[in-house]
Amino acid sequence: MPDTHASTPDWPLPFWIAHRGAGRLAPENTLCAFRQGAELGWRGFECDVQLSSDGVPFLLHDARLERTTNGRGVGSATPWSTLTTLDAGAWHGPATLGEPVCSLAALAAAAAEGEWALNLELKPSPGQAQRLGHGVALWLRQHWRGARPPVLSSFEPESLRAVRQADEPRPTGSPWPLALLLERWRPDAPQLALGLSAQAVVCHHRSLDAQAIRNLHAAGLRALAYTVNTHEEAARLRAAGVDGLITDAVTAFRPDVAPAQRRGHGV
User: Fold this and answer.
1) What is the pTM (predicted TM-score) of this model?
2) Closest to 84 measured CA to CA, from 105, 67, 63, 61
3) CATH 3.20.20.190 corresponds to the domain 16-247
């Protein structure tokens, strides 16, 4: 297959990326999930980042706390001092009873020690998109010590713009690689991503095909897909030239081996 990435910038993520730490094996977005994923050989991880009411970056997928913690209310409206008292593991099972809400600081320290690659999805509550992007960018500028930068992704263009603006006036733009998340592929995705200074587009796997991937590569962008949990779908996307897959199926795939390409379908 020809090198479709000759014009793309350096990219810190491996092909395989574990969803929310260890897929469904552990309580999502907790430090124990990342450690369990790492024990299985995974070194690339996706997670969801929000800001507490007092500006501390922490991991949470939903706007509200109820599904994955014993807290109540909107996570971004809760101070970090309260979030530290919550149990983020009991919902998953007795083995993870008492697992705390994970701060970005705790994850960053573990990632630096384990040499993990991170995809931090900016997950703003309504009205929080600009605040989240700006706050996470400033926190990373002050505290990130990892050898490779995290990728910052979001469904919210405003969050990605805020990341870029927080790091201006850097002559080379944001030091944090950006990725635009889309629920479905759209023909103007390359233009949207380039307008945000993003280096990649991440789509739901069912809407991504070989032509879409070719269009992204032609624009100098990476193409990734979420959340791919079957060997058949992984092989289809690999044959189409995809650059990375996010999965819950952390025991079904070997993160050091890309799925085989189907002969005659490469790009």
Assistant:
1) 0.92
2) 105
3) yes
